Amino acid sequence: MKKRCGIRREDKNKWEARVPLVPSDTRKLLKKGIEFYIQPSDVRAFREKEFEEVGVHIEEDLSSCPVIFGVKEMPAQFFEERKTYIFFAHVIKGQKYNMPMLKRMMELECNLIDYERITDENGRRLVFFGRFAGLAGIIDTLWAFGQRLSFEGVKNPFNEIKKTHEYSSLKEIKRAITNIGHKIAIDGLPPSVSPCIIGIAGYGHVSRGVQEILDLLPAEEVSPEEIGNIAGPGKQLYKVVFKEEDMVEPVSADGVFDLNDYYNHPEKYRSKFHKYLPYLSILMNCIYWTPKYPRLVTKGDIRRLFTDKNPRLKVIGDISCDIEGSIEATIHTTDPAKPVFTYDPQRETAIPGFKGDGVVIMAIDNLPCELPRESSIDFSRVVKRFVPAIVSADYRVNLDEIELPAEIKKALILHKGKLTADYKYLEQFVGR
Questions:
Q1: Which of 11, 105, 325, 380 is a Cys-bridge partner for 22, taking CB atoms 3.0 to 4.6 Å apart?
Q2: Could you state, in order of their start, the residue ranges of all structural domains in the chain?
Q3: Does residue 1 surpass a pLDDT of 90?
Q4: Distance, CA of 181 to CA of 173 (rounded, Å)
C-alpha cells in the first residue's frame, strides 16, 4: 500500500514561491511507494502541470495525508490531530510570534520535525537555504550600495545592478556581476569609493553564498588586521571575513579568547567589532545569533560612527535579520519590493528607501524566495533522501521506538504533542 504525503502551499507572503520537494524528486520518490498530494498555488515557482506530469495529485484537501511537508510556518488552523508536519518552525529561540502555533500543535498531539534541527553527528546543519540567502543578500546589498552612491552624487558601476528578484535566474545574475567586474578592472572605482572594503561577518553557508558573488568581481581577500592599511584608489574591491575571534574579546583584561569557552559562556565576552566599522564600505552580517551573545553592532556604534558627516560605511546587508539583534539598528524587516531602509542613528528611526541621514540597511527576512526555483532544487535534493523514513515511521509508538534516522530524530521537536527532551526549555515560552 502506498504511503500518502502532502505538500502544503506557501502563503506566508506573496513572495514565497519555494517548494520543499521539486517535481523531478517526487518522481523518484513515487517509485518508492510514496503518493504525493500538493495544494494548488498561483505563486509557486513550479507550475502545477510540472507536478501532474510526474504523477503528483493536485488537491486542496490534504486531510488524507498523515505527513505534510512545507517550507515556512503554517497557520494554527491548518493543523489536524496526530499528524506529522515538517517545516521551518522558527520556534527554537522561543520566538514569541510562533508560540501560538506551537501551542496549537501541542493541543492536537501533532509531531513536528524542524528542518533547522536536522544535523549530522558534529551538529552541522544538513538541510538549509543558507547559500541562497547569501547569494540574494549580497545582490540586494550591492544594488542598495549603487543606489546610495548615486543618491550622494557619485557615479559608480554598482548602479547597474538590479534587485535579485528582477533577474530571471542565477545564471543571469552571475553574468551581470561578471560584466560589472570587467568594468571595475578596466575603469577602476571612483576615488570617493576607494578603497571599497566589504566585511563579511561569519564563514558558514550564508557567507559562502555572499563570497560566491563577490568572487565574480576583482576582489582581493585581506585579513581583519590589514584593513586599516589599505589605500585607494584602485581597480579592485577588498573582502574580509570575520571569525569569532575577530568579532569579540574577553571582558576580563587578562582573558584569552577561546572558541569553546565563548560558545559555552558568551557572557564573558564583548563585541570589539566597532573598531573595524570606520574602514568598511559594506558590512554583510551572516552570523547565527541569539540574545545570549554580544551584539555585533550596536545602535551606539553607529551613532558614534556617524559623528563623521560622511563615514565610509554606506550599507549593512543584515542577512541574519534578527530584529534589534546582532545588528541592533535592524529595527524592522523589509521585503523584496522595498528591500532597504535608512537608519538615522540620531533619531533611532527608519526612513524607507536609501535616502536620508544614516546607514542603509537591507533586512529581507526570506531572501531565498528571490531565487525560488534554484533554491528549491538545491533544498529538495537533500530533503528527498529523508522522505521515505519520515513517511514510513510509526509515530504512535514511544519516542525511543520510532524508526527514524538519527538526524531526523534530533529534529523532532514535538512527539504526540509533547516537547522532546532537547526542547523541554520551550515550555517557558509556550506558557508565556
A1: 380
A2: 3-128+372-427, 130-370
A3: no
A4: 12
DSSP assignment, residue 364?
A: B
**Fold matches, 3-128+372-427 and 130-370:** yes
Residues forming a β-bridge with 327: 297
Mean pLDDT of 57-69: 98
CA nearest 361: which of 371, 373, 369, 352?
352
Task: Give 408's DSSP letter.
Answer: H
* Cis bond before residue 195 (omega within 30° of 0): yes
Angle between helices 205-214 and 170-187 (to 10 degrees): 50
pLDDT for res 108: 98
Distance CA 327, CA 318 (A): 7
326-367: pLDDT as tens digits? 999 999 999 999 999 999 999 999 999 999 999 999 999 999
Q: Which three cell numbers mark 131?
A: 547559500
- pTM exceeding 0.90: yes
Assign domain 130-370 one CATH number from 3.40.50.740, 3.40.50.150, 3.40.980.10, 3.40.50.720. 3.40.50.720
Find cell 513550479 and name the residue. 46
| Per-residue pLDDT reduced to its tens digit, 162-199 | 999 999 999 999 999 999 999 999 999 999 999 999 99
- What type of residue sits at position 233? P
Residues contacting 166, CB < 8 A, separation 6+: none
Cβ(118)–Cβ(414) below 8 Å: no
- Other C-beta atoms closer than 10 Å to the C-beta of 353 total 16
Residue 316 in grid coordinates: 549593512
Alpha helices for 168-325 (secondary structure H): 170-187, 205-214, 244-247, 259-264, 299-305
pLDDT in tens, 366-383: 999 999 999 999 999 999
Cβ atoms 244, 258 nearer than 8 A: no
Q: Report the half-sphere exposure of 200 (CA within 13 A, side-chain side).
A: 26
User: What does the DSSP 8-state code read for residue 217?
Assistant: S
Lookup: cell for 354: 536609501
Give me the pLDDT at residue 234, please. Answer: 84
